[in-house]
Write a structure and sequence with these properties.
Shape: globular
Distance between the termini: 28 Å
Radius of gyration: 15 Å
Number of helices: 4
Strand order of the largest sheet: 1-2-4-3
Mean pLDDT: 91
Low-confidence stretches: none
Largest sheet: 4 strands, mixed
Helix content: 40-55%
Structural class: alpha+beta
Order of helices and strands: HEEEHHEH
Number of strands: 4
Length: 136
């Protein structure tokens, strides 16, 4: 059966649980690819294999319009590029929880965000692969 690639970011794929977010920031691993910082953690498999959250600092961007714009750019870039990572996580039979934070100080172009998200996701794929092979 051939499955088609779906470029969606549905409600189930968004990280909303306060409990999971708190645990992620306490126990998760992190790295940065300026201007994006990512916190990630493997968990036991639940309904969805990959969940993501996005945030932009109100310290650097006082206006909600600017924060929302950057968050929207990050979500769109992630939505279009997450499929390879999602397939890898589904094969490992775990859940991956990630949180992307924009730490830059100026509003970026979409091309910059796309490039950085691509770098982040490929690096995350390598780390997940290493993590899953180490656990097996």
């Amino acid at each position: 059966m051939q499955s088609t690639i779906r470029y969606t970011l549905g409600k189930q794929e968004r990280l909303k649980s306060r409990k999971i977010i708190d645990q992620l920031f306490k126990e998760g691993k992190f790295f940065s690819v300026f201007p994006i910082r990512i916190v990630w953690q493997h968990r036991e498999k639940t309904a969805t294999s990959l969940q993501a959250g996005f945030t932009v600092s109100s310290k650097h961007f006082k206006k909600a319009v600017h924060r929302n714009r950057i968050r929207r750019l990050m979500k769109e870039a992630y939505r279009l590029q997450k499929n390879n990572l999602q397939l890898q996580v589904e094969q490992s039979d775990k859940q991956l929880v990630i949180f992307l934070m924009y730490v830059g100080k100026e509003i970026p172009e979409y091309s910059l965000i796309t490039e950085k998200i691509k770098t982040v996701l490929s690096r995350l794929q390598k780390m997940v692969h290493e993590d899953s092979t180490a656990n097996n």
